[in-house]
Design a protein that fits this description.
Chain lengths: 209, 198
Amino acid sequence: MRQSAVKLQPRSPSRRAELQALDDNQLVTSFLNGTTNAFDILVDRYQSRLLNFVYRTVGDRERAEDLVQEVFIRVYRHLARFDQGKKFSTWIYTIASNLAKNELRNRARNPLVYFQTMTSTWEDEDRPLEFEDSTARPDDAFERRHLRELVEAGVRRLPAHHRQVFVLRELEGRSYEEIAEMTNCNLGTVKSRLNRARAAFAEIVRPAM
Amino acid sequence: MLRRPSLSCREFQHHHVEYVDGLLSGEVRRACDLHLAGCASCAARDVQIRRALLTLQVLPEISPSAHFRARLNVRLAAEASRRALTFPGAFHDSRRPDARWWIVASALAASAALLALAPGRPAAVSPAGSAPVVAQATVAPSPAPPAALKGPVSGARAGSSRAAPRFEALPGTVPLGRAPLPPPLSGVRLQTVTYLGQ
């Protein structure tokens, strides 16, 4: 059943604030009823969250932005068919999750192309940690950066299907049930993957602790 | 008072995910506590995992780049115009019967503006600094998508001589024929065209 939506003129700041007060499903209804800026609010709400999720999953900043753009295009394209009895956040994360999974699958098929793409664009900050830095200083900032690199590398080193569940749970804070729906797995599989991912991650970062 | 036997290590591992997340019911949680108190190996593993999860807090949140929204708005405007041409009746605007050229022109202009603004890949900025710069100039909220669209789309799928536009099926969606199409985005006016089935 559709919730009643508020149809608002989009240019007024106060009315934009009113739009921002709506929940996701009400925004969807408003957009479908012609309040075009409702979609902008949805983008505002999800762009950073999705970018972080996809980035942590695929490990490539630029590609993550492209994929998040694609998520919003698909949401726009299919929004009228969204089942409003469900949570919008679960739906949009499902789309993002599927795109990230496809990206990883494509990379597995074409690893050389992916490596060339990565190395042609990465900066020092993006490089995975490969060896111990001999210029280490007893400096908090440095140690923090070292730990951050180790943690990022640890997340990247998890197997793709474990990493996806791990990121959704540990970094996005999604519930097991939501993750099961987003990844199209049953609840037991989600818990099992999360258990293994946590153990593997703990093993990877143990030297830093 | 009788005490329930402690869990085996295997059983404890089975519950460990929910135990760490604090999602176990009282009885099972107490059994896990009991096991942990008597099993050094599982206790060490539990501490190791909890400490590892704490390290995730050092990961910085990244923000979309400066031109993320501008690029997205261009793509959405193009999508809106594509849909207008594919589903002409979906975005009905009787005030602008000759607007098809305008849709294409606006998409091209937006693309050109974006290229002029963004010669290279930008660095990360906060979301507050990524306000849309295109496709926001004019806003024409369109009326609700017409119910008449539902019939022809279903009919096309059922065997009309005109091929129905194909979209990928997404999880959590309802079939196309049951729901209206979305309106166009800000800055996009769309024309009135007789629908295929009419």
